[in-house]
Amino acid sequence: MSRFKLTALSDMLSVDTGADRVVPPTGFTARLTIFTSGAMAFLAVFALALSMASGRLATNWRDALAGSATLRISAPAGQMAAQTERALAILSQTPGVAEARALSPDEQRALLEPWFGPDLPVESLPVPQLIEIRETGEGYDGDGLRLRLQAELPGAVLDDHTRWRRPLVEAAGRLKILGWLAIGLIFGAMGAMITLAANAALAANAQVIQVLRLVGATDTYIARAFVRRFTIRTLIGAFAGVLAGLLAVLLLPSAGAEAGILTGLRFQGLNWLWPFLVPPLAAVVAFAATRWAAMRVLEDLS
Amino acid sequence: MIDLDEVGYSYGGGELLTGISLRLAPGSFHFLTGPSGAGKTTFLKLCYGALVPTAGHVRLFNQDVRELSRDGIAFARRRIGVVHQDCQFLDHLPLAENIALPLAVSGQDRLEAQANLKELMGWVGLSDRTGALPPELSGGERQRAALARALILSPDVVLADEPTGNVDWEMSQRLLQLLVELNKMGKTIMIATHDLGLIRAAKSHVQARVLRISQRRLQLAGADL
After folding, report:
1. Which of A161, A191, A299, B170 is the most buried if burial means most Cβ atoms within 10 Å?
2. Do B71 and A218 touch (CB under 8 A)?
3. Domain range for A13
4. Is the Cβ–Cβ distance between A129 and A84 less than 8 Å?
5. Are residues A106 and A228 in the same domain?
6. Torsion angle (degrees, nearest 10) of CA A220, B190, B65, A4
7. Contacts of residue A214 in chain B, CB cutoff 8 Å?
């Protein structure tokens, strides 16, 4: 089956200007096909950029927040230092914890600064003490640590970030899938539009088809004239659309270093090459759509 | 070559042809006559597989048309040259390309094709019209071009539907002479025409069988011809 399709593809695209010339040139459908494939390729580049940016976002969020946790100690002011010491001691004994460090008042003030301003007297307020935990590669037993903390330091709460990290990573993952779905829909719509244009061209050339059949043309020969034409037009349009799309992506503002775990829409590194797969894929879609339309019309006309 | 066995053809509930049996033997010459609307064109279309009979069997080169795929019919048509009533050209292509169309669709060798084309255009007297577009041709030139196109693949059978319908007497005699020459080369010829003068003129040059379609049936024409 695949061999047949490859043979049909090479037959259809083989250099035969004769097969091309038998169909009169039609400027309107030519321009329509080029415009459609160009517009679709332009959108496909953006969908691809969105999908890849979402993938990067999911990875960034996963990587940036994985391997760290926060221990929050709430205790009366007089017991805070002792409980912090005890928590650090417990953490130093816990397998899988690489480092545990109590945040200084300045660091805690910096964390609260966006909400309360720069002059917050952290020392005089009942602000919980935060301990930053770094895991080893193997990680620690979260449930076991929680049980021990509950027994020895009832006011301590372990937050391993899973609670809010997971939905963000899931959202980014779904956005990535949505991007690929959009690409699929774009190619589907492109195929549908090319089928309509090919149908119109075939209907307009019913007399040409009749003459070709009279002189012994096979369906493959007749279809080839239309398929070649639509495939080449789609390839040209899609290539122009990709170039325009890449230029537009290039002109988008970069996320920059201050974006932190956020990411821009621009492609990165070798990923700039991915959009160049769009024109050949569009040509394959055009080939399949036109061939299907041509064979169906030729069957109806027989 | 082409065999019709008890062939009938109905369309839209009406019977156009019925009980037709005929064998087009190699090298034979047939005229098909009858009044306008009698079914001459339908009969010819059955002979080259453009229509499939609703009764009986049509065999093209020993193959039943019902058992032939569309490609099979296309291959059979390359052995049957058809001169259509209204010529049927591709108006956007120059005359030489129109005549060479059967060569193009059958993927014949291009150099050999060019030699055949030049010779054939000279034979039908259109050497100086190779670049003309079909709408620029006179009726006689169109008919001769249609004949040239029908012959370019050197078919075994030539079916001509009213080939002299749009030309004057002198041109019709010239076209007839070309067809007679072809028959002498061994080609099987069938000409559908309502021009009895043409048939009478041909009988002095070739031994032709004259058939008439009357009341949906095929009959051997009488001695009046």
Report:
1. A191
2. yes
3. 2-62+166-301
4. yes
5. no
6. -20
7. 50, 77, 82, 84, 88
Structural element, H or E, at residue A101: strand A97-102
At residue A8, the pLDDT reads 52
Please tell me the pTM assigned to this model: 0.74
For the residues A81-93, what does the mean pLDDT come to? 91
- Conformation bin of residue B87: beta by default, left when phi > 0, alpha when psi is -120 to 50: left
Q: Indicate whether A232 and A107 sit together in one domain.
A: no
Cα distance between residue B137 and residue B129, in whole Å: 8
Q: Please tell me which residue of chain B has the smallest CA distance to A216.
A: B74
pLDDT digits (tens, 9 = 90+) for A240-286: 999 999 999 988 877 665 554 456 788 888 999 999 999 999 999 99
Element (H, E) at A281: helix A278-301
CB contact under 8 A, B101 and A210: no
CB contact under 8 A, A216 and B84: no
- CA distance, residue B133 to nearest chain A CA (Å): 13
| Number of domains, chain A | 2
Which chain B residues have a beta carbon less than 8 Å from that of A207? 88
Do B75 and A214 count as a contact with CB atoms less than 8 A apart? no
Residue B151 near residue B143, CB atoms below 8 Å: no
Is residue A180 domain-shared with residue A278, that is, in the same domain? yes
A44 is a domain residue: yes
Q: Which of A15, A17, A215, A222 to mutate to test the interface with B (most CBs of B within 10 A)?
A: A215
Q: Are A102 and A86 in contact, with CB atoms under 8 Å apart?
A: no
